[in-house]
Every structure is written in structure tokens, then in C-alpha cells.
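In practice, a research group might receive sequence data for several interacting partners and want a quick structural hypothesis before committing to experiments. The following worked case mirrors that situation: the sequences arrive first, and a predicted assembly follows.
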Amino acid sequence: MELSITKQRCPICGRGPVIMDANEGEVLCSNCGSVLKDSLTYDDFEQRVFSSDDKESRVGLPTSLAMHDRGLATMIGSDNEDALGKPFELKMMKKIERIRIWDRRSQLHENIDRNLKQAFTELRRMVDRLNLSGIVMERAAYIYRKALKYGLLKGRSINEIITASLYAACRELGMNRTLKDIAKVSFLKRKDIARCYRLLLKELDLRMPLSDPIEITSKIANEAQISEKTRRRAIEIIRRAKDSGAITGKDPNSIAAAALYLACKLENESKTQEVIAKASGVTEVTIRNRYKALKKFA
DNA sequence: TAAGATAAGAGGGACAT
DNA sequence: ATGTCAGTCTTATCTTA
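A structural hypothesis for the assembly, expressed as C-alpha cells:
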């Protein structure tokens, strides 16, 4: 444990000294146990979780082993009496109580630590395989920590939540990764990731940039090499359909794909349903269904 | 060969019990 | 909490132009 004792006085009890716990990222008063600062920034974790591997191996034992029996819980009973069965005096009681608080806190942090470490290892692996930037990873880590803080991990696996966090980060930052893409590099099924993703949205009140079919056309058009002229036509179709309210509740991806397909036909740009289906990630059947509904807006 | 049609099934939202 | 229902999308297979 990396503790550094400062010369500061605790602003709460007026005594001290204040201790900075670099390992836990906390600043505490050694006298009253008050946590004066516990905000761990992502950079703290970045340094610890992602870059400290070699440092740790040089030191010797891995953290989990090194820390395994460090807690004081096994040494401090809950009875407020000494070894002879005599009750503690008040002064002693207070002291013991303080130690217990510290003890609980350090145990709690160890659990969180292990959890984050495992989660971020998996996160980094997936980010590597998906060719995503550090910014997305950072965002995913932030979401994950928030989920952990809100107790969303209870009854769920670390992998599920970290994977869903990654997906959420992708959505938030406009990265073009589908649930399918992410499922492929994780060890999870698409539906499980989707379930957790919805959970995150609901519980953490995440606001995703709403996906507009018109926005999506550019991605699909790009992928399927559809001309700008045709894309504009598709956008017009979507506009009209949108105004009529005929497309509410439909997957924006399928709308964009079908509108592009329809526009291709109108512009005599020969693109098969298969090509557009591949580019958009929806099936040909779905394109056909939307296509039928969209035709009257052409 | 591309497009269309049909059927079965999955998964989730809404709503009631 | 659990069940049901309507609506959406996917997968698979067959038919049509």
C-alpha cells in the first residue's frame, strides 16, 4: 500500500495528519477517517490497471495474491471487549471503531480493484480487436465504473457489463460498430449484450445521439458505393415518409437501407438487395418489407 | 441470378394479472 | 413477478422473372 503522510491538518476534525493513499486514490484523515477526496479519474486507472503490469511483475507477487490476506477483518472481532472479556473503555471503543472503518474501506477497494482490473483487461482486448481508439476505451471504462457504482453488476457478469459499456461508448461517440461486431469479439451472445446495453441506458440515464436514418444513409451509401445523387434522392424519400409518420418505430437502419435501394432503382443505379443488405447490416427480407412501405413516397 | 414470397422462430416492449 | 399479445426482425427455403 502506497501511503504518504502529509503535513496537512484535516479540515473536518482539525487534527491529522492527512494521508494520501496513492494506491486507492484517496485522501483521508488518519485521525477521524474522513475521506477528503475519493475521486478517481480515469487516468488513475489507466496508469494502474493498464500500465502497471510490468511494474507489478518486477515487484513480485501479483496484486491479487499480494493483497490476498491483507485485510484486518480476520483479526478484529466484532465484540466490543478485550481478550479477557472485559468491555472496552470508551476511548478504546472509538479507536477500534475507526480501525474497523478503515478495514472495511480497504476491503471494499480491493474488491472494486479486482473487478476493474478484470473488466479493463477484457475491454482492452476487445478494443484492440475492433480497432477502436483510446477515446472509446476511455468512455467505455467511464460507463463501466458508473455501472459498478450504481450496483448494476450484482447478479451479472463483469464481461456482460463491460461489453455493453463498450457498445454504449461506440454508440455515443458515433463509432460504426454493431452489436454483431461486438458480439463477435466478445464471448457473449448478441442478445445478452443488447440486454445489458438497455440496462445501462435505463439505469445510468445515458442519452444516445438518436440515430437518424438520414445520417445512416451516408454510411451505407459509402459502404455500398452508391452515388451522392442517389443518396440525396433516398434522403428525400425518407423525409416524406417521416412527415407522414409511416416509419415510426422501425429500425432506422432498415429505413435507410430500403430508401437507398428504392433510390437506386429510380436512378437506374444497379445495386442488388444483397449488396445493400451487407452494407447496412439488415437482411434482404427486411429491405423488401421497408421497400414496399416506402414506395409510395418516391 | 436477383428478386420476391412464405413460414417459423427469437427477443423485447406494453400491458394486465 | 409472470403471462400474453402485437409487432419487428432474422433465418431458411421455395418460387418467379
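Before designing any experiment, note the following. Residues 2 and 22 of chain A are 6 Å apart (CA to CA). Residues 191, 194-195, 198, 272-274, 284-285, 288 of chain A lie near DNA strand B (CB under 10 Å from a C1').
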